[in-house]
Design brief:
The protein is α/β, with parallel strands linked by helices. 54% of the residues lie in helices and 15% in strands. Strands 12-13-15-16-17-18-19-20 form an eight-stranded mixed barrel, surrounded by six helices. It has a five-stranded mixed beta sheet with strand order 6-7-5-10-11, with helices on both faces. It starts with a helix and ends in a 7-residue tail after the last helix. Bound molecules: ligand C2E and calcium ion (2 copies).
Length: 647
């Protein structure tokens, strides 16, 4: 049905497409990665096969032994079989590479998998002697031999294997790559099927060439994976590639470089030199690690993925990088010194999931870590943080939070109120203290739920009327400043308190002075609004921050809580005493009430009585205790008053 000129046209088109794809690939310089190289090899094979199609189309079956055409068709046919046999195995290898499977295979497994290829390739190569695949009979007619069946079976095997690998990697192949790969599989299958129906069609190579054009435009084109500022792969690419490494149990080492003062240096260098940092860093890193193994996340964090390297060489490289980043960098007229952290960790022993890796990259705790190189045990704190973060989130479902109360007293020893302090009793990690988990909850955005829970609990407790019965003026509830800034903060607080029918003046919110000066206005408005509604406010941990004092005192607060460190410092040195005395005097002049925390001894009480503070809180009276213990405590007249008057 189809004549030679049809096959000729089809083959010419296939050749043209392959050549264009090859040219485009070289112009775009996409030749450095293994899958780039396999891709080029596949295009070359398809080109040779297309040329073979052209030759057989041009000569048809009219060849004579004496003719040059005979030699040409013989050579071309031989080239066709030798190269075409390699096509499907290469395609399989390509899919493995794109989906990071290739290096996972043990060498034995790899050898076994490529056995059918080696055997069939040998058959094709030795065909002039063995005639296992085809022969040319005395009439110069081409005759297929049984060996060809093996070549087809092997091709089918690799095609099916490629598809299986593709299926298991589905999740880690980014959006537009999936349809291109599906399209390729369909085109190859249809092309082969049509050619089986009519061998003169010669459409297989054309279909494959078209399919690989799609691959070139999507899989080989990595624009969506690249961070153009740095020229490295971006965070999305890191997510996919690391996810895929986990999926396929690939072992690798990561070296993470974090430039903690990136923003500062970026600003110092100025707009005209925006590429300075990029130039310095990419120049240095690419001299050690291939560009396509480097990723950049959030501008200041670089991740190098090192496959198939032993721990010593990875550690050595990390040490070298860490040492280099301790030194300044000269760039044009600048000398730039980074504050860096280098971390080395391996997958899957130290880092057990992609999200754990991102947690490590983003961990803000690294900023004030004194070490410049973190490895092995140094990384435990990150794992601990992650475990704590998990405990924080599962705590809500598992009812692991509990509110403890620590009583506060007037200077004359009478009960005054209590501070609500949260505790987390996790099944796995045991008791967790707020000093550890509150900062983590603040960083991960889970603090809102904790603070809402505490307020709810306090409201319920006040709802029983028990605290009021024992003359508790109010219960103090800690607020994170982050929480105050969230939208609908006031509405949420009002909703909880009003739903429980609690008088607002029974609640005293504690806020700390650690807040960026720029947010003072917002904070001040929120406090004013809540105070107008009847709530009370205390300034917590006074003396620990570096805030602008006049701004602190411009906030309309009822009580200032002096931090325990200021009290304890007064015992240790004369200077400490001067600080305590002057702090108290200054707050008194501002006409604010003073509460001192951390009261542990009779001497503390004597001192504070002399200095005429208003309220006391500390282990001398009671540690934070459960609600039940607290009820016992306040209802026991012996415990309630400490007769400070007699001290
Ligand atoms: P804070 O608000 O300064 O709470 C006082 C801390 O000092 C409590 O530690 C308390 O147990 C401790 N303390 C009180 N008196 C003494 C004493 O005489 N000696 C000693 N050594 N310690 C004393 P805790 O309960 O571990 O809380 C630590 C911090 O966690 C709190 O500091 C507060 O900033 C935060 N926190 C606790 N509960 C909450 C909460 O519900 N929400 C928020 N946002 N933060 C909370
Ligand atoms: Ca507090
Ligand atoms: Ca405090």
């Amino acid at each position: 049905m189809f004549d030679n000129s049809f096959a000729l046209g089809v083959s010419c088109s296939a050749l043209l497409i392959c050549i264009v794809n090859l040219i485009y690939t070289f112009i775009q310089k996409r030749t450095d990665k293994t899958h780039n190289k396999i891709f080029v090899a596949i295009l070359c094979i398809l080109s040779i096969n297309a040329i073979n199609g052209i030759i057989s189309g041009a000569y048809g079956d009219d060849v004579t032994r004496s003719d040059i055409s005979f030699t040409i068709t013989q050579v071309s046919r031989y080239a066709y079989f030798v190269t075409h046999t390699a096509l499907c195995p290469l395609f399989f290898y390509y899919v493995c590479n794109v989906s990071f499977v290739s290096n996972r295979m043990s060498s034995l497994k790899a050898k076994l998998i490529f056995m059918p290829f080696i055997l069939t390739e040998l058959m094709a190569l030795t065909n002039p002697l063995t005639h296992l695949v085809y022969k040319v009979d005395s009439d110069l007619k081409f005759q297929r031999q049984w060996g060809e069946i093996f070549i087809y079976l092997a091709a089918l095997l690799y095609f099916v294997l490629a598809f299986a690998v593709f299926r298991t990697s589905w999740k880690f192949i980014s959006g537009k790559r999936k349809p291109a790969m599906v399209f390729l599989f369909i085109l190859v299958a249809v092309g082969v099927f049509m050619q089986l129906l009519d061998k003169n069609l010669k459409v297989e190579v054309l279909f494959e060439a078209v399919g690989f054009t799609g691959v070139m435009l999507s899989v080989e084109n990595e624009d969506d994976r690249i961070d153009f500022g740095m020229g490295f792969y971006n965070r999305a690419a890191l997510n996919l590639d690391i996810g895929s490494s986990f999926r396929h149990n690939r072992k690798l080492n990561l070296i993470i470089l974090k430039l903690n003062n990136y923003d500062l240096i970026d600003r110092l260098i100025g707009n005209g030199e925006t590429n300075t940092i990029a130039d310095i860093i990419s120049g240095y890193l690419t001299s050690h690690v291939k560009r396509y193994h480097i990723y950049v996340s959030e501008k200041n964090t670089f991740v190098m993925t090192l496959y198939d390297k032993d721990k010593e060489s990875v550690d050595k490289l990390a040490e070298e990088i860490a040492a280099r980043f301790e030194e300044p960098w000269d760039y044009k007229d600048f000398s730039v010194l980074f504050n860096s952290t280098v971390m080395v960790a391996d997958i899957p022993n130290q880092i057990k999931s992609a999200s754990e890796m991102f947690y490590m990259l983003d961990s803000p705790a690294l900023d004030d870590n004194e070490k410049n190189l973190l490895k092995d045990e140094d990384l435990n704190f990150i794992m601990r943080r992650r475990a704590v973060e998990d405990a924080i989130s599962r705590g809500f479902a598992e009812n692991s939070y509990e509110v403890y109360y620590q009583p506060t007293f007037r200077i004359d020893g009478e009960l005054h109120g209590a501070e609500a302090l949260v505790r987390l009793f996790d099944k796995k990690l045991g008791s967790l203290y707020p000093d550890e988990f509150i900062p983590i909850a603040e960083q991960s955005g889970l603090i809102d739920d904790i603070d809402d829970f505490v307020l709810e609990e306090v409201c319920r407790f006040l709802g029983t009327g028990i605290p009021q019965k024992y003359n508790i003026d109010h219960i103090n509830v800690n607020l994170s400043v982050i929480q105050c800034m969230r939208p609908r903060f006031v509405e949420t607080i009002d909703e909880i308190v009003e739903r429980n029918g609690i008088d607002k003046k029974l609640i005293n919110f504690e806020i700390t002075e650690t807040i960026a000066a720029s947010d003072y206005e917002t904070l001040s408005k929120i406090i004013e609004r809540l105070k107008d509604e009847g709530f009370m406010f205390s300034m917590d941990d006074y003396g620990t921050g570096y805030s602008n004092m006049s701004a602190v005192f411009s906030l309309d607060l009822d009580v200032v809580k002096i931090d325990k460190s200021i009290l304890w410092g007064a015992e240790k040195s004369e200077l400490g005493m001067v600080i305590l005395e002057n702090t108290i005097r200054m707050i008194q002049q501002m006409k604010k009430k003073i509460l001192v925390e951390g009261v542990e001894t009779v001497d503390h009480i004597k001192l504070l009585k002399k200095l005429q503070v208003d309220y006391l809180q500390g282990f001398y009276f009671s540690k934070p205790i459960t609600k039940e213990e607290f009820i016992d405590f306040i209802s026991d007249p012996l415990k309630k008053e400490f007769h400070i008057g007699s001290i």
